[in-house]
Structures are given as C-alpha cells and as structure tokens.
Write a structure and sequence with these properties.
This protein is mostly beta strands. It has one domain (about 20-185): Beta Barrel (Lipocalin), CATH 2.40.128. It is built from two helices and ten strands. The longest helix is centred in the first third of the chain and has 15 residues, at about 1-15. The chain starts with a helix and ends with a strand.
Length: about 190
C-alpha cells in the first residue's frame, strides 16, 4: 500500500512539475474549414489550404498559448469562379489582407476538460478579441516516433464585424469556423 501511495505521489509530482511543451503545427495535418449560409437556404463549405503556427501545452492552462496564421488566398470552395470571388474585394480581399491570424492572450481551464482560449483574431485587416473553447484531442507519437499533440475548436464570427459586409444576407453574416491541428514537439 505504501509503495502504491509513493508511486501515485511521484506520478502526481511529475505531472505538476512538467515543463511547457511547444508544438509546431504540421500543415499536412491541419484543417481550417468554414461554413456560410447561401440565400438563407443551404450551407456551403470552404477550406484554407495554407495553415501554419504553433501552440504551447502545459499542465497549468495559464502557461498555454497558440498562434495560427492562415493564408487568405489559399481558400478553396471547390469552384474556381467562386474561389476568385471569395478571394476578391467582396469577401477576403486576399491581395490587400493576405493573412488571417489568431494569437492567444489568455488561456484558462474550461468546462469538461476544454480550454477557454482568448486572443486576437485578425481578419480582413480588423483585429477583434474572441474566446473559443478548444478541445485537446490527444497526445502520442507519429510514425517516426516524434511527440505530437492535437487540438480542435469550432466557433462563430460575424463577418460584418471584420468589415466584410458585401452581399449580406445573400451570404450569411455568420461564419462558422472549424479548426483541427496536429503539432510536432519542437
């Protein structure tokens, strides 16, 4: 019994004193998907194909952080004509605003094991503070034995708050964003 208690105490101490780990987002295993409503009848989806960044994980949520950068011009809606329109001045203005970024400013423990991540989302040249609930989806090793970790979140933004007001309500003001990433330990 004493041995079991000592082992439990050692495991607990190791977990508490674990150092923060930094992970670089693997663009091959990162997905940024968005959904908007068209003519108030149906949804259409798009993806961004160029995603990079990093995140820091620690047992103490206040020591966690995340930075993500998405190339606005990498948007793909499965239709070349629509892609050109979405990259243009009516929506992302990818030439003028080539990146969409998120940088955390605060991380706290959330409900059901989630993390409440607050930070600045910069879209279309406008920065706004948002808070998203992030799920830590797992930790493990990749095929080469390197340490990896994953996270995912889904959140909503009003595109009008970022200066993207064209074609509302034909294309909904609300955008649902879904982000899932896998990172490799630095």
């Amino acid at each position: 019994m004493i041995r079991s208690l000592l082992l439990t105490a050692c495991v607990f101490a190791a977990a508490v004193t674990a150092e923060a780990q930094t992970y670089t987002i693997d663009p091959v295993h990162a997905s940024v998907v968005f959904r908007v409503k068209h003519l108030e009848t149906s949804y259409f989806y798009g993806v961004f194909k160029d995603v990079k960044g990093s995140f820091v994980l620690d047992d103490d949520p206040s020591k966690c952080s995340v930075e993500v950068e998405v190339k606005a011009g990498s948007v793909d809606t499965n239709n070349p004509g629509r892609d050109k329109h979405v990259k243009g001045p009516d929506f992302f203005s990818a030439g003028e605003f080539p990146t969409i970024t998120f940088k955390s400013t605060k991380v706290a423990a959330g409900k059901d094991g989630m993390l409440d991540v607050t930070g600045n989302l910069t879209l279309h040249g406008v920065s706004k503070e948002i808070t998203v609930q992030v799920e830590l989806t797992g930790k493990g090793r990749d095929m080469k034995g390197k340490e990896i970790a994953g996270a995912a979140c889904t959140f909503r933004v009003q595109r009008s708050e970022f200066g993207m007001t064209k074609l509302i309500p034909a294309v909904s003001d609300e955008i649902v964003l879904m982000l899932a990433v896998e990172g490799m330990k630095k």
